[in-house]
Structures are given as C-alpha cells and as structure tokens.
Amino acid sequence: MSLKIGVVGLFRGLGPASVFAHHKDCELYAVADHNLNKAQAAAKEFDVPNAYGSFEELLGSDCDAIYIATPLPLHAEQSIACLEAGKHVLGEVPAVYSIEEAQALVAAVKASEAKYSFAENMSYFPWVQTYRQIVEAGELGEIIYAEAEYVHPYEEGMVRQADGAGGKQGELAWRASMPPIYYCTHDLGPIIQMCDDRCVTAVGMHTGNRRRPDIGCIDMEVGLFKTAKNVTLKLLCSFSVAKQPPHHWFTIYGTEGQIESSRFGSVTTASPHRLYREKYDRLGGPMLFDCDADHPGAPPEALTGGHGSSEYFMVDDFVQCIINDTDPPIDVYEALDMTLPGICAHMSAEAGSEPVEVPDPRDW
Predict the structure, then answer these.
(1) Are residues 57 and 142 located together in one domain of the fold?
(2) Could you read off the pLDDT of 96-142 as tens digits, one per residue?
C-alpha cells in the first residue's frame, strides 16, 4: 500500500515533506504553500506531481493524508477541514489556538473515519526517549516535580514572510502575537507521556513586552501546573530573549532520584545529561552521559527531515497507524493534553495569575 501524502506549509513542512518523499510506504503526491513559487520549487526538488498555491486546492486533490505545517492560527481550521473531507491528518504543534477550537476539533475527530495524529517531534528525540525509559522503569521512584524550558530567540520569525498566512512582507506575523506559553507542547508533551498524566490546574505569569517594543511580543512566559497524579510542573517558554544558543532543558525529580539535561547543548541533543539515583549513591554522585541526536540503527532516509532522526520515526508511526488501522501514536486527546494547559496558563496570566482549571477533552 502506498499512501498519497500532501504537505501544506513549506516553511516548517519542508523537512517532513522530505521524510514522506523517501518513505517506502508513501508517495509525496502534492505540496502546497501560499507562496506558489515555494511549492513549485519543492515539487521539483522531490519530484512531486502536484504543486498548489493554497490549502483549498490541496484539500480538493485525491491525496489520502495531509501534513499540516501552516501557521498556528490555521491548525484547527485546516485539521477539521481535512477530517470532514475524509483525509487523515498529521497536525503540527500546538493543536489549537483556543478552547473553542479544541472542542470543534474533538467533534470533528469523533465524526470522521479519518485519523488525526499530533506531530510532537520532541517525543521522538532519542534523549527524550531515554528519559522516558528511565522514568517508566522506576529508576527515579515516584515522580513528584518536573521543570522544563523551551528558549528559542526568534524575533526574525515574528515579521511577515511567505509562510502560508498571507499578508505583506515586513508586516508582523502570527508569532508576534502568540503567547509564548502556547508553545509548551514540546516540553510538556514528553513529560506527561513519561508520567502517564495530564494537567488539571494552570497558573501563569509573563514578563510583558520589554525587550522588543517594536514587535510587541511577550518576552517570556511561565506556566505552573498541577497534574491529576499530584505532580507539580513548571514550564518556561520564550522566543524573544537575549540568550544563545536556543535550548530545551528538562529536570525531573522523583522520590529516589533526579535527571537533568544541559541548557548549553544543541536544541536537538541537549547533551550532556546527569542522572542521580539514590540507591547507587555509594558509587559517587550523579552519572554523566550523552545521547546521540540520531537513533542507533536508523536507516539513511531517516536523516532527510532535520531534527536528527526524530521526524522519520514520527512520520513512520503515523503512516503505520493508517496502514494497519491502529490508534494514532498521539491522538486528539493526548494532543490537547499537551496544548490546552498552555492556553489555560495564559488565561491565568491575563487574569492576575488566578488558577484556571484545565478541561479534559475526553469529557466533551
């Protein structure tokens, strides 16, 4: 079986498009971007038969599945349109821009026979998967606290480019008005997967706009969360801050140990890592170790998409769930468990840091 794949949004989507183009069970059938020249260039590069200048044209094609890599404000609307058209969806992060969009997405998934999966590539980073194995094996005991940061200075991306949302070059783009904590999915997602948990309460704070008044973006935003299993989480997101290099940073505390990454490795590898296990204390402090950016034994085509080999395995899980008619690797409920806490944390920040209940999408 060869799935006909369409990709929309070729700023973010170009890497995954390359993965689909090299996947043995797929045909990269169509690419689309608001900038038609970009779509035509990608079609030529990957020998794709169809290039479109709009999502609507792609939706009208006879592709089987669509990878949505357009700007965040379009994710829910386009995911819903795909599902209503009977096309499988692999949707970029975050899943939605509001609670109302989340409710509409759940309704669309329930009404469609097509599959919706969430493209959280951080869940597939080798070092994140190593952390998950350590946590799930009980090496840290019961998890009681975790903290993470996604700091990625990107002011240049806050000015309009040909990224699929239209508008004139040089205007402020969607990233300028996006609350940073909306992008907590990259770090929150892996942590709640490790703990098999979900957030139930959110408290938020942000620094306002002091670094780039000309852009008007929030500099930094923090979310403090309580989970259903009574774990406390703290997450920081920033896309406008005087710091280099960009980083993902995790620290996880259990009753019997702790694991922590570095703020000064690359965004992909976050090396080196330190693991402390109390039961081995006589061996002398934390163990220092590195993780590869790529999965050992990954096929050569796994390196075509960027972010190490993570996106190959993310795409492959999505493809296999369609071929084998199994549950999506990250379904709509888990996608919203990763997305809604950020929305609620920003609501809290705007309301003087009053706690906000995080809805459970399974109740809708």
Answers:
(1) no
(2) 999 999 999 999 999 999 999 999 999 999 999 999 999 999 999 99
**What pLDDT, in 10s, does the model give residues 30-40?**
999 999 999 99
**Do residues 321 and 348 share a domain?**
no
In this predicted structure, the answer to whether residue 75 has a pLDDT above a threshold of 50 is yes
pTM: 0.95
Q: Are residues 220 and 346 in the same domain?
A: yes
Residues 295 and 151 in one domain: yes
Q: What is the mean pLDDT of the chain?
A: 93
Residue 170 pLDDT exceeds 80? no
Q: Are strands 88-91 and 116-118 parallel, antiparallel or unpaired?
A: parallel
Q: Which residues contact 151 (CB under 8 A, 6 or more apart)?
A: 236, 237, 238, 241, 243, 246, 247, 249, 263
Where in the sequence is the domain holding 295, given as residue range(s)? 123-299+339-357
CA 108 vs. chain centroid, Å, equals 21
Number of domains forming the structure of the chain: 2
The neighbour count for residue 285, using CB atoms within 10 Å, is 9
CA–CA dist 195, 13 (Å, integer): 30
Residue 248 bridge partners (DSSP): 150
Q: Is residue 260 part of a domain?
A: yes
